[in-house]
Amino acid sequence: MLVLGAADMMARDVLIVAALLVALLLVRALVLIRSRGSVLCCLRPMPGERGWRVGVARYAEGRLKWIPLIGLLPRPRHVIVRRGLVVSGRRKVGPGEFFGFLEGVTALECRSGEFGFELAMGYRALTGFVAWLESAPPGAHLDVA
Question: Domain residue spans in the chain?
């Protein structure tokens, strides 16, 4: 008969808790990605400040709600209002920026009020983003380069 010591039981408990947390994060990511009206979209505050963060963008009521893919809270981390959103540039993402796991991605330089950021997305998500911008009601100020 095998008798486990207190240290072995504690290590086992820590592994079980870690496995449960990983499983919960994976379920959260799948639910976010599979939600209707959501697109995979990476965000980087002011180019160069921090690295890219992978998340999901949802369009609702003239706003783009960006929710991080990895996190505990289900609420958006950034809410970008379409009115007054300035898109000042567009570029192809370099091969080393995403550690090579995304190809054919376009990054947009944006500003919403004082918040400067870049959004990176694939071709389909980019087409949807541009359509969302262009579908603003008449008289809305949009500045798209």
Answer: 35-144
User: In this structure, which amino acid lies at residue 117?
Assistant: F
Q: Does domain 35-144 have CATH number 3.90.180.10?
A: no
Residue 40, pLDDT > 70, answer yes
Q: What is the Cα–Cα distance from 92 to 109, expressed in whole angstroms? A: 11
pTM: 0.71
- DSSP for 98-113, please give it: TTTS--S-EEEEEEET
Distance of alpha carbon 1 from the chain centroid:
50
Q: Which helix (H) or strand (E) element contains residue 40?
A: strand 38-45
CA dist 84 and 73 (Å) reads: 27
Q: What is the pLDDT of residue 39?
A: 84
